[in-house]
Amino acid sequence: MDQVALIALGANLDGASGGPSDTLRAALRALEETQGCRITAVSRFFQSPAYPPGAGPDYVNAVAALECGVSKEGLLARLHEIEDSHGRHRKTRWGARTLDLDLLAFGRVVAPSEVTWRQWRELDRDQQRVRAPEELILPHPRIEDRAFVIVPLVEIAPDWQHPVTGQSALEMYRALPPGEIEALVPLS
């Protein structure tokens, strides 16, 4: 049975495909070619301030929904292949990058467990800057904190419900500080 996967796309450096918007379009084309997956929705592209503030040039961000007949691990491996083909180098956590593809959610899967998800969700900011999980954590533990994810997500899936908190994307949007929403500029 196919699962609905939510993918966050972001870039703030030029790459082989051109500027960040060009890179996101190329990544979407590569996702369309992924065996067993079909894109069902793509948000507009948004210009957003780098996170954390001062970490580089502004980003271009979007969110896509896919119906996938592959495993979450298979999809993650494909996302990493696409990133690599666009010159992504994982040197600095939260640093500038040619392409970032994050698997936000995969159906209603909570992985590897709710206990582990909560540990990563509650990790303090200093540890978030230096630690990266060695295993896939689903849903992404920071979805509701990031306007650059929630704003495009609510465009394509306002009723999407977080499998742990039960909040919808629209409820998460309404909880964001207004200044964070206003900092995003639609590009398309």
TrEMBL record:
Single GO MF descriptor: ATP binding
Sequence intervals crossing the membrane: none
The enzyme's E.C. designation: 2.7.6.3
Name of this chain's protein: 2-amino-4-hydroxy-6-hydroxymethyldihydropteridine pyrophosphokinase
Keywords: ATP-binding, Folate biosynthesis, Kinase, Nucleotide-binding, Transferase
Pathway assigned to this chain's UniProt record: Cofactor biosynthesis; tetrahydrofolate biosynthesis; 2-amino-4-hydroxy-6-hydroxymethyl-7,8-dihydropteridine diphosphate from 7,8-dihydroneopterin triphosphate: step 4/4
BP GO terms, sorted: folic acid biosynthetic process
Gene3D superfamilies recorded: 7,8-Dihydro-6-hydroxymethylpterin-pyrophosphokinase HPPK
Domain 7,8-dihydro-6-hydroxymethylpterin-pyrophosphokinase: from-to ranges: 93-104
Family statement drawn from the similarity comment of this UniProt entry: Belongs to the HPPK family.
Pfam families cross-referenced by the UniProt entry: HPPK
Keyword Protein biosynthesis: no
Organism: Rhodalgimonas zhirmunskyi
